[in-house]
């Protein structure tokens, strides 16, 4: 399969710059490749979670990652396809962004059903966590959104 070509690129140093680009371009652009410094670069960088949270607020999602050089990667972001589902971590991110009032109105209307879904922890994961009292105690000290995100990565 041929490699996906790198299209338009963007380098942002912080979450606000990324949000500003999305605000101006979410309804016009078909993709953007963020140039992201690796942690090892020692350069100011926007954390992955921040890039995804902001993208979700505008109906976008992360996609392919490619190496640029020793200290940078490209991360492709695209508008979500109509009707595509959300992973559990992204559902939780959406809930947090909605509580903070960061999701734009057109996207909020589209994701309201997702936000209203009730979450049930998988019993096998909860049972495994309960086997170790310290682990169970630590788990219960996390916020609900963080618990669901962490469990979703295991599930």
Content-based structural category:
alpha+beta
Give, in order, the helices and strands: EHEHEEHHHHH
Question: What is the CATH architecture term of the domain at 9-82?
Answer: 3-Layer(aba) Sandwich
Mean pLDDT: 90
Q: Which geometry do the CA atoms define?
A: globular
What is the CATH third-level topology name of the domain at 9-82?
Answer: Rossmann fold
Instruction: Give the assembly state of these chains.
Output: single chain
Q: Give the strand tally.
A: 4
The unreliable regions are none
Please give the order of strands in the largest beta sheet: 1-2-4-3
Helical segment tally? 7
Portion in strands: 15-25%
Please state the CA-atom Rg, rounded to the nearest Å. Answer: 17 Å
CATH first level of the domain at 9-82: which class?
A: Alpha Beta
Residue share in helix = 40-55%
Task: Name the CATH homologous superfamily of the domain at 9-82.
Answer: Vaccinia Virus protein VP39
- Cα(first) to Cα(last) distance is 30 Å
- Largest pleated sheet: 4 strands, mixed
Which key phrases capture this entry?
alpha+beta, four-stranded mixed sheet, 17% strand, 155 residues, single chain, Rossmann fold
Write a brief caption for the model.
This protein is α+β, with helices and mostly antiparallel strands. Helices cover 46% and strands 17% of the residues. Strands 1-2-4-3 form a four-stranded mixed beta sheet, covered by helices on one side.
């Amino acid at each position: 399969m041929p490699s996906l070509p790198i299209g338009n690129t963007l380098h942002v140093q912080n979450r606000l710059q990324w949000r500003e680009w999305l605000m101006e371009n979410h309804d016009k652009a078909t993709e953007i490749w963020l140039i992201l410094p690796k942690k090892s670069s020692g350069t100011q960088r926007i954390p992955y979670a921040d890039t995804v949270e902001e993208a979700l607020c505008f109906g976008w999602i992360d996609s392919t990652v490619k190496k640029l050089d020793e200290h940078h990667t490209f991360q492709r972001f695209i508008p979500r396809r109509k009707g595509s589902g959300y992973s559990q971590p992204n559902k939780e991110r959406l809930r947090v962004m909605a509580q903070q009032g960061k999701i734009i109105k057109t996207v909020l209307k589209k994701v309201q059903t997702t936000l209203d879904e009730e979450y049930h922890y998988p019993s096998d994961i909860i049972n495994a966590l309960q086997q170790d009292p310290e682990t169970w105690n630590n788990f219960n000290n996390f916020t609900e959104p963080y618990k669901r995100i962490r469990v979703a990565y295991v599930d």
